[in-house]
């Protein structure tokens, strides 16, 4: 294993700044643990306990464990190991930092948004394409307005989401019901709506690229479905992330990847305290050096 190879592995999915933080933590871990390549779950828990005794820092604890996980991801990918010793080891975030998940929407509730019809046929198809990206992929409004036609790959059933300042790039699978929806939109609806030359995927009824404000305006009429809760693109995305973790029991690392979060601590805030899927908890932190 070389540092260069590990760095290239990390750069495939993370920004240079994130990779730099991960490499720092990994190198420190390997310096103190020269036999880490053969470590088991208990060894890693012991290491976390040892460093936590020296200093507690909430910013570092999620970074160090995530970095160690990436190190073992690389070993498995490279064939150095057949198992991942700490894949299911996670850190509990202080409850006062948690998302108020009780105010969010369940998957069945989000499905109701797709059942509202629009009096304009073209807008009905367009709206369902947009809503499906919110509900199934959990995209932000900014990510949606930056999507281009080429980002949709119907042959492979995927959508490519570009990186931004706050979120990582990623390629996500389309769900089966999106396939025919996107096909009809790209082949029939969008060409008929188009009024100017643009490669943007989502366009307005005037045929121009949609804006973030327009997405919020499109969601506004749906608020009547849930008058006692705040419905907007942000709370829809938050609900999707919460449901991935707590309804579908998708692993924390996978949800971090799906959501495009740069730090696992951002994802952990969505874990329900009383979730039946019990998470391993480490309440100590990585020492600042």
Automatic annotation (TrEMBL):
<dbReference type="GO" id="GO:0003677">
    <property type="term" value="F:DNA binding"/>
</dbReference>
<keyword id="KW-0233">DNA recombination</keyword>
<dbReference type="InterPro" id="IPR011010">
    <property type="entry name" value="DNA_brk_join_enz"/>
</dbReference>
<dbReference type="InterPro" id="IPR013762">
    <property type="entry name" value="Integrase-like_cat_sf"/>
</dbReference>
<dbReference type="Pfam" id="PF00589">
    <property type="entry name" value="Phage_integrase"/>
</dbReference>
<dbReference type="InterPro" id="IPR044068">
    <property type="entry name" value="CB"/>
</dbReference>
<feature type="domain" description="Tyr recombinase">
    <location>
        <begin position="100"/>
        <end position="283"/>
    </location>
</feature>
<feature type="domain" description="Core-binding (CB)">
    <location>
        <begin position="1"/>
        <end position="76"/>
    </location>
</feature>
<dbReference type="InterPro" id="IPR004107">
    <property type="entry name" value="Integrase_SAM-like_N"/>
</dbReference>
<comment type="similarity">
    <text>Belongs to the 'phage' integrase family.</text>
</comment>
<protein>
    <submittedName>
        <fullName>Integrase</fullName>
    </submittedName>
</protein>
<dbReference type="InterPro" id="IPR050090">
    <property type="entry name" value="Tyrosine_recombinase_XerCD"/>
</dbReference>
<dbReference type="GO" id="GO:0015074">
    <property type="term" value="P:DNA integration"/>
</dbReference>
<keyword id="KW-0238">DNA-binding</keyword>
<keyword id="KW-0229">DNA integration</keyword>
<dbReference type="Pfam" id="PF02899">
    <property type="entry name" value="Phage_int_SAM_1"/>
</dbReference>
<dbReference type="InterPro" id="IPR002104">
    <property type="entry name" value="Integrase_catalytic"/>
</dbReference>
<dbReference type="GO" id="GO:0006310">
    <property type="term" value="P:DNA recombination"/>
</dbReference>
<dbReference type="InterPro" id="IPR010998">
    <property type="entry name" value="Integrase_recombinase_N"/>
</dbReference>
């Amino acid at each position: 294993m070389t540092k260069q190879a590990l760095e290239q592995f990390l750069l495939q999915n993370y920004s240079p700044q994130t990779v730099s933080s991960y490499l720092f933590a990994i190198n420190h871990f390997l310096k103190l643990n020269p036999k880490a390549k053969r470590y088991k779950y208990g060894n890693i828990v012991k290491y976390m306990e040892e460093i936590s005794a020296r200093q507690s820092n909430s910013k570092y604890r999620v970074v160090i464990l995530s970095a160690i996980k990436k190190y073992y991801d690389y070993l498995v990918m490279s064939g150095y190991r057949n198992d991942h010793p700490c894949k299911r080891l996670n850190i509990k975030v202080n409850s006062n930092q948690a998302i108020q998940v009780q105010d969010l929407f369940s998957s069945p509730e989000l499905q109701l948004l797709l059942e509202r019809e629009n009096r304009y046929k073209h807008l009905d198809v367009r709206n369902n394409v947009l809503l499906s990206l919110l509900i199934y992929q959990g995209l932000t409004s900014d990510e949606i307005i930056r999507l281009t036609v080429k980002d949709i790959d119907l042959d492979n059933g995927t959508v490519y989401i570009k990186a931004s300042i706050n979120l990582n790039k990623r390629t996500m699978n389309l769900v089966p019901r999106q396939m025919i929806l996107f096909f009809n939109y790209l082949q029939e609806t969008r060409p008929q709506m188009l009024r100017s030359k643009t490669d943007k995927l989502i366009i307005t009824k005037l045929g121009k690229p949609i804006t973030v404000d327009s997405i919020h305006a499109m969601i506004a009429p749906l608020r009547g479905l849930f008058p006692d809760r705040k419905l907007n693109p942000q709370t829809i995305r938050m609900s999707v992330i919460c449901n991935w973790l707590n309804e579908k029991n998708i692993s924390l690392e996978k949800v971090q990847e799906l959501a495009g979060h740069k730090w696992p601590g951002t994802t952990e805030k969505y874990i329900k305290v009383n979730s039946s899927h019990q998470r391993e908890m480490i309440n100590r932190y990585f020492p600042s050096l």
